[in-house]
Request: fold
Amino acid sequence: MEFSQDARGRYQELVALFTATFTASEGASEGTLIGDLVRNQLSRTPAADLYVFTAESDGVAIGGAVFTRLTYDQDDRSVFVLGPVAVATERQGQGIGRQLLTYALQALRKAGIDIAVTYGDPNYYSRVGFAPVTGALIPAPFTLQYPEGWLAQSLAETEITPLKGTAHCVEAFNDPAFW
Reply:
């Protein structure tokens, strides 16, 4: 298995992976919603605001993780939100997601990103260093349906201090349905 930060030319393959994975686990409407999200992230997000990581086996993408920039009106720290992440249904339970996220977070550290956040299952994401945070510490762009799923980790050598100002996400994520 190989990990990569270069998804150019693989956008359709990744959209199909995310659509199929979320359809299998959450149903067709969720699969379509997440597939469209990934399509919009990959096609509409400026390169400086997007990181895409893949896991592949025999030249086929079996996992993907998308990180997009969050900005804060009164804070210049570099913050990226993870979402979505997928591993092909038939390859789940093999540690691929954990390995992919470990690879991605290390690459973000090397790129000088200060903070990574995600919105998901604390039990899963704690395996790669995410921990619950409050909206007072890291404001979300929208009201969270499940505030207990708001997670973060410092990628710098410092503890996270409150981010200041209103949070803004990339266009593809600028919809309360995702929060």
Remarks:
- The beta strands are 2-4, 50-57, 60-72, 75-87, 115-119, 131-132, 150-154, 167-169.
- The chain has a mean pLDDT of 97.
- The longest strand covers residues 60-72.
